[in-house]
Amino acid sequence: MFKNIALLLVVAILFSSCATTETNKAQTGVVGGAAAGALLGQIIGKDTEATLLGAAIGGVLGYIVGNEMDKYDRRQLNAAYEGTPSYKTSTWVNPDSGKSYSVTPQPAYRVDDRVCRKAEIYAVIDGKKQKTLATACRNEQGQWVLQQ
Description:
The protein has 148 residues and is an alpha+beta fold. It folds into two domains: 2-68, no CATH class; 71-146, CATH 3.10.600. Helices cover 48% and strands 26% of the residues.
């Protein structure tokens, strides 16, 4: 039964993303995040529940990053991962959009040869509070890149 629900959810998201000719960053972020999250959930949990949970988490993160964060916000997020001490919160309000963010990074750790950090990200967008736990790892150029 869960597989049928998951399939219907994925199909609905894919069709809704094709409903407009103009590229919608929120839909692209949700679809990409949900797909990546579902794949990761299936790989880690090897069951339908893990796949659905991964899709939900990936979809939320994809929405926040894909639609709501512009270049200013991504620079601020990168600065929070780079310079904010573990368990301290960095906050900002986007001067153009009015959206506010709070990022609380956790201690850095290594995955293979990359340095990574998890962070709790709180966002207030159009009066709605959103929370996600995101992981970023340094790329070869030393920049923090969100993982999905």
